[in-house]
Specification:
Blueprint: H1 7-12, E1 19-21, H2 28-32, E2 45-48, H3 52-65, E3 69-72, E4 88-91, E5 98-101, E6 106-110, H4 115-122, E7 127-128, H5 139-144, H6 152-155, E8 162-168, E9 174-178, H7 183-189, E10 198-205, E11 207-208, H8 225-230
Parallel strand pairs: 2-4, 3-4
Antiparallel strand pairs: 1-2, 5-6, 6-10, 7-11, 8-9, 8-10
Length: 244
């Protein structure tokens, strides 16, 4: 079994492109800080991944060393599950890219992306999907936990709008989970708050969304309050069909 003292050197030798942080390293304390300031967990190792391959290396290293794994995206979990005390924390915050296919109405979201990045990527196309209410919440963690948001009453939870996930399993294998591939895993990922797998990316379908005024925006002189609250959410012929 690999000892924890050997881990940083072993990970760096494994074609690892990210950062490895240990107690005393520059950036270690900021990396382990999460939204709930009462959490003061100290991982043995923080592995800031730059690719899916990096995630695989981190998972396999933790298994070899018998270390608990935590996965950090936005760090909003109230219990601080992203930061395993004495374990290995996989930090996905550098994997924050969001790409949008406006024709298919699909957004592909990397595992470390925040809701603000999802909004910025979809809004130029007049698209949106159910997401949380705070822009610095991680899309991955929100989705794995179900995901409530402004559009949930009409379009379901965030996890209801997921088309597929690319997952690094607890064994260090990379699999695609969808309704057609690994459907049991796909079922569990959508709202199961999974911690034994790391979702390195996901694909979600989006709906056309009016460009404001938003329900929380300042009053518009041309729209009465009841109309303003419904702007962008009322469709004359019902909501658009989900893309297949």
């Amino acid at each position: 079994m690999t000892t924890t003292a050997q881990l940083p050197a072993i990970i760096r030798r494994s074609r690892f492109d990210g950062q490895v942080l240990t107690a005393g390293s520059r950036g270690y304390d900021s990396a382990r800080s999460v939204w709930n300031a009462m959490i003061d967990h100290r991982p043995k190792l923080i592995v800031r991944c730059a690719s899916v391959d990096d995630v695989v290396i981190a998972v396999r290293a933790a298994r070899e060393s018998d270390l608990d794994i935590g996965v950090r995206c936005g760090g909003h979990n109230i219990a601080g599950l992203a930061v395993p005390h004495g374990g290995l924390m996989i930090d996905l915050t550098t994997l924050g890219r969001v790409t949008v296919d406006p024709v298919a109405r699909r957004a592909r979201v990397q595992g470390g992306a925040m809701l603000g990045a999802l909004d910025r990527a979809t809004q130029p196309f007049g698209l949106a999907t159910t997401a949380g209410n705070v822009s610095h919440t991680g899309v991955g963690g929100l989705t794995l936990g179900g995901g409530m948001g402004w559009l949930a009453r009409q379009y379901g939870l965030t996890c209801d709008n997921v088309v597929s996930c690319t997952v690094v399993t607890a064994n260090g294998d990379v699999v695609r989970a969808s309704a057609d591939e690994h459907p049991d895993l796909f079922w569990g990922l959508r709202g199961g708050a999974a911690t034994s797998e790391s979702s390195s990316s996901s694909s979600s379908w989006c709906i056309p969304w009016a460009r404001g005024p938003w329900p929380w925006s300042s009053p518009s002189p041309s729209i009465t309050p009841p109309q303003r609250c419904a702007a962008g959410a009322t469709w004359p012929r019902g909501p658009p069909a989900r893309p297949r």
